[in-house]
Predict the structure.
Amino acid sequence: MEGSVVPWIENAVNTHTVQASAPCRVDMGGTLDIGTFYYPLQHARPCTFNMALNLRTRVELHPYRKGWIKVSSRGFESAAFPFEKAPFHHALGLMFAVAVHFEAAGLHIMIDSASPPRSALGGSSVAAVALVGALARLRALAGYEDLNLDQIVRRAHRIEETTAGVPCGMQDQLGAAYGGLNTWHWEVGRDGLAIRRKAVATRPGPNDLDAHFLVAYCGIPHASRDINGTWVRRFLAGKDRLRWAQVADCVHRFSRAIEEGQWAAAAAAMNEETAIRRMMTPEVLDDIGAALVDAAAACGCGGRFTGAGGGGCLWAVGERGAIKRLRQEWRSILAQRPEAQLLAVNPDMEGLTIAS
């Protein structure tokens, strides 16, 4: 295919400039959004919570050499391959997989993420959502049918799961697409999975939320597949199933407390969920992460790793005064490791945006 190009994209990418962006997230209850868990745990009403952050991943589409795909992303070395040889087991393999799905040869995909690379904020899934949205819009400008928000989510998730070769959840893609604060209920109906979204309206409103939470990058990248793989293997072997039902209950209580502005109750539910995870997999927190979580509890706040832990980011919730005290404690702990830092973030209420 070298030297050729799929017909639809050549004129479209030379005629239209398409940009898309989507927010990353902090979360609670992840792993329950994997079918391995939510099908047998229907009795426990499995759900996950996430809050989108104003750390956005932006995607731009530009013309490139015919028959080739190039991907450039901050924090990674740029890579270009012939369309038919684009590798999916590459650091940027998910982006190549999305491009190949859309037959997007002759394209330079430029990605810029405001979050630290491999920070457990859902970055790769967010980039996939933005890229699927951008390519779907570009294809629509060429006269093909566009995708709606739900279709973008499911397409990005399916490509990621099949490319990864391991079970993957969908909450990261949903948070990127819809933004805001949401509880995602993983319900199974007559025709299979029926995701129910419950938007969480907080007291106080979103403009005051920044006084009730913190997000910290612990200075080392995460490796969620290793920890998630452990959880999946143990669950399949019949282990920890009662604990996962308890995790679901923690998420229900956490979400309800956030909506009611009961920050101490939210902190208690978060700490209980974190403790359950640490019993199952102590490696979910390293020394710095454990110190951050312990400091949160000592200040009357909740503390939790984001995603599947093992590095990356942690977040905390609590009353205004408790968070103010914790901010100073976390700064002192984070100063022990280069690159570790508090992140300046606010909730992002918008979700996926596409401009063309």
Remarks:
- The chain has two domains: 7-199+351-355, 206-342.
- Residues 1-5 have pLDDT under 50 and may be disordered.
- The chain is about 40% helix and 25% strand.
- The two ends are 28 Å apart (CA to CA).
